[in-house]
Design goal:
With about 450 residues, the chain is an alpha+beta fold. It has two domains: about 60 residues, no CATH class; about 375 residues, Porin, CATH 2.40.160. It has five helices and 16 strands. Strands 1-2-3-4-5-6-7-8-9-10-11-12-13-14-15-16 form a 16-stranded antiparallel beta barrel. β14 and β15 form a beta hairpin. α1 packs antiparallel against α2. The longest helix is centred in the first third of the chain and has 27 residues. It is globular and about 100 Å long. The two termini are about 30 Å apart. The N terminus is likely disordered.
Length: about 450
Amino acid sequence: MRIPLNGMAGVACVVLSVLLGAALALEARAEEAAPAAAEASDSERIEELEEKVDILTDEVGRLEAIFVVPEELQLVSVNGLGPAASKVYKRDSGLSIGGYGEVRLRSYFNQEDDDQDQMLDALRAVLYVGYKFNDNWVINSETEFEHGGAEVATEFLTIDYLWRDEANLRAGLVLVPMGFVNEIHEPNFYFGAERPEIERTILPSTWREVGAGVFGRIADRVEYRAYVINGFDGRGFTSSGLRGGRQGGSEALANDVAFVGRVDVDVLSGLEVGGSVYVGQSGQEQDFDADGAGPNPSRSLPDAQTTVYELHLQYKRYGASLRGLWTEAFIDEAGRLSRVLGKGTTSSVAQHMRGWYVEAAYDVMPLLHRETRMSLEPYFRFEKYDTQEDVSDLTFARDESKDVDLYVAGIQFKPIPQIVFKVDYRHFDPEDGHRAEQIQGLVGYVF
């Protein structure tokens, strides 16, 4: 009989084996010292030994079920999370560990500042830890170490109650379910050495807030998530987008809450369409103290109701990958918010932001080697976004440098599905301002 050794189960097996061996050795010595006192027959001794081995095997199996981290042969998204973060949901019970990481080289040229340094960055190393107590209760978490460990953050931390496929509950620090990459942001599952700019400025990934809600899958075709979360902090809004308004679960103000919901539909084999919407106030009932003189009711932030929606579709089949996304954001009282925050004439928070992109890729490796797990995918993405689509009143003017066309062309290679190498070229072409070009390289992994 072969007893598997793996991690904590292996340690337990060794300890139990030592104890069993010691017991058998003592028994043998006792028989040698007093052979006449040995009353058990050989068959009884063999039966007793087999019973002890069975007990040992059962105990090792129990510990293995709790502690052993299984190897994933297929990386599949579950409940809207990235494949590595989804491993815990595929277990019967016990501990699950996963993760991903990225190291990136970024080289600038044809910039306004030609002396800008090339940048090597251990961008992030992430650890997923989850535990499934039983068929109903699951905890799941993501801890991220950024820029070589200079920054540490909890990306999500949730408790799920799994009731049935169609309806489940989730509470904690949740990933806001908007766009393609906010929830599924491992580098193996999107194209580019950098996430799409639209999904960094208008949909500010990685975007997570504290809240609770429901999620599920209906008829194995319609997937949904809906949460009530704390709203943005409007003090962080800029002419460049909503990114600074994220609170990220760090003593988040919750005087204003928000609703976010998402639906995805599997229309045909390989074709998925969906959309999401976020609605909530961003003022958080704050008085803005810019000069340190203390709160001033005349400088109270407006409610600044913020509405963001996005529509998306993707198609993956026959080696082809196609994606498209459209998003808009609207901020009420953006002019008043900009005045309270002391924004300049061309640095105001816009009342309307807009962006869209289309992306295409094709795996050419099957044309070169039919029976292989490797992939080689050239890709191209065109993005058009304007975080100053419309400013609120005559006090402010549009900053036309925020109206950008972005061209991204590159290639990615996966020797195995869990490891990826990417090289791409990015060309920024603003309506008014200096063009910028970058070459990037990235190595990433997921497990």
